[in-house]
Amino acid sequence: MAPDTAVDPPNAAEGAPAQELPSRPAKQPKEKAAKEKPAKGAKKEGLELPGLPEFIQHRLDLFHKIKARNDAEIAAKPREEITITLGNGKEEKGTSWETTPGSIARGISKSLFERTVIALVDGELWDLTRPLEKSCKLELLDFEHKEAKKVFWHSSAHVLGEACERRFGCYLCNGPPTEDPPGFYYDMANMDGRVVAEEDKKALETISNSIIKEKQPFERLEMTKDELLEMFRYSKYKEYFINQRVPDGTKSTVYRCGPLIDLCRGPHVPHTGNIKAFSVLKVSRVSQLKYRQDRDLGLTADKNSAAYWLGNSDNESVQRISGISFPDKKALEEYKTFLAEAAKRNHRKIGQDQKLFFFDEVSPGSTFWLPHGTRIYNTLHTLMQEQYRKRGFQEVMSPNMYKSDLWKTSGHWGHYAENMFTFEVEKETFGLKPMNCPGHCKIFSHSDVTYKDLPWRMADFGVLHRNEFSGALSGLTRVRRFQQDDAHIFCTVDQIRQEIEGCFDFLYAVYGLFGFTFKLKLSTRPEKFIGDVAIWDMAEDKLRQALDNFVEKINSKWEENPGDGAFYGPKIDITVYDALRREFQCGTIQLDFNLPRRFKLRYVAGKDEKLPEAAADDPDPLPQGYGRPVMIHRAVLGSFERMIGILTEHFAGKWPFWLSPRQILVVPVMPNLNDYAKEVQSIFNDKGLFIDVDLGSNTLQKKIRTGQLEQYNFIFVVGAEEEKSRTVNIRNRDDQSTQAKGDLVPLQEALDKLLKLKEERRIENRL
Ligand SMILES: [Zn+2]
Ligand SMILES: [Zn+2]
């Protein structure tokens, strides 16, 4: 992510569109509104600064001057009849430099006009109020559209920015829409040591709502680079963006709403009043801004260097205020309910409550797994090992540290070194592995492989380390030390389809156990790639066939992301949806033509095997009779750490029996039943179930209550009657009707039923 006022891709979020757009740009409500007439009584209550800072006035003066010139230029443009072709093929007539997308929408229908957030003119995002310049294709996007959401939240960031300037007189840095969490933020500098407090949130919301009420239009203005530098001379942040983004001798744009004029390429909603529901959510301190690309298995094509704010890690602290907005109030209320539910499910909180794991300053980003957390970890591990046996994967173990030579061969040294922990041993540089692939290539090349050995499905639970920036670490979702259910499939080109179908089946089986739904996307050959076009085409075709086949089986769909593959092979993105319908990327299926070449991997081909022609750029042409394997990087769970974080929130800490670290609690009704309780414990424990017994001095009711809070799936209450009949009384966590004394269940029957529940890995907590 580059620091810019431009946009980042936001995530899908809920929200019904309903808005009102003016047919032509309204006038800015009351020139210098903030100066003379802030929101009612605002100054009195200390909501805003008593007067606007000098830099704001300077900006406005310059804006007026250039705007006058600009308006004259536009007025002088030739008015010609133009044809506007709509998405459905229909054509509308208009006048160049006069007709706007907004007026076209209004002409079609009021409801369409009200629904529309932004226009797409010949594929370019275009303000609804910006005149069309020539005949064009026009699409109208509503809030449900991904790009429209970005524009909507981006526009909302301006509102927040204006409120911040008016309250603090601060300098705005970067204010993009965001995907995760959905919404937007604005980074602020020059706060004179003031820390944004909780009460500022309310104040900013009040000012923002007054800005929204004023329906300030977003006014677009083109300016030269020199004019931009003059306008923003007060801020080294904006100066930085201008120099980064605007080549000498070219123009860029600013947008004005109210007293705020911001360097921005736009576009925006027509006016601030389109933002019907607005909320300031969070304030955080960003002492060092460092942006990094998310990583996948294998090499990332885009080497995104660690970009410190203004290239300086010791830069002054910047404060980030985030918010959310919607085109209607109901959507905001729903979103707030969602946030409250998500907060309840927060895995860090549940991890602490259930004593699953913790973090400590002695090793940031590396999890201390407590006994109960380790149980979950191991259960997932066992699940994968079972699946591996069924599906013909073979487990290997490989080193954790390798000399830099290996990383040079794999290409990590050039592309990925900054994400690795490196150190000296006996005057040689080593790196801790961030992924298993290079080690697996070593295993392959060591093994004199023939076609009969393929496909070789090589699995490894090895410990991986990635040098995540300490400020980016976050619970289990972003860690430095983790393990994956990582595997590499080495196969022939002919085997790609069958192997990919096997991967899908694997995903389906495992995600089904968690109750996840998921979506598949194929990312194909990017502009820059290695290898042979024919092999790419063939591989992509096989992936398409495999996808078609699979989605038909599960009655689903897949999408294509043309040109979005890695430089070394096409990939399949797997998006998982949890119980709150949040999206995650866990699994990976990535074809790789690169590493096998770099490691000069080859196998003895079958006699009649039709081998693909060697790529022209292959650094290691194969001798006759040898084939080069294709490598498939794949993971289902991805990082165990991250997956456990996701599962904790997905289940809200109410683990399904098979995955639960606390399956059964035995509670004796009186101390003289302690022996029987212990005997029950030992019977179930011996069969591999996690069973505890509460022999403490609390009352029966208190013990049961504690067991419930700790989310034991079942609580066995044992009294004299149970002891005599060698039975238990079972309370089911998820079944209210079992919370009073019920039937006596013989021990063997209870054991059989629970073992079955565990073996079947059912989500439902039912015997
Ligand atoms: Zn903007
Ligand atoms: Zn890999």
Automatic annotation (TrEMBL):
Q: Where in the cell is it found?
A: Cytoplasm
GO terms in the biological process aspect are:
threonyl-tRNA aminoacylation
Predominant cellular place of this UniProt entry's protein: cytoplasm
Enzyme Commission number, as recorded = 6.1.1.3
Catalysed reactions listed for this entry: tRNA(Thr) + L-threonine + ATP = L-threonyl-tRNA(Thr) + AMP + diphosphate + H(+)
- Supply the PANTHER family for this chain: THREONINE--TRNA LIGASE, THREONINE-TRNA LIGASE
Name this polypeptide is given: Probable threonine--tRNA ligase, cytoplasmic
User: From which source organism is this entry?
Assistant: Hapsidospora chrysogenum (strain ATCC 11550 / CBS 779.69 / DSM 880 / IAM 14645 / JCM 23072 / IMI 49137) (Acremonium chrysogenum)
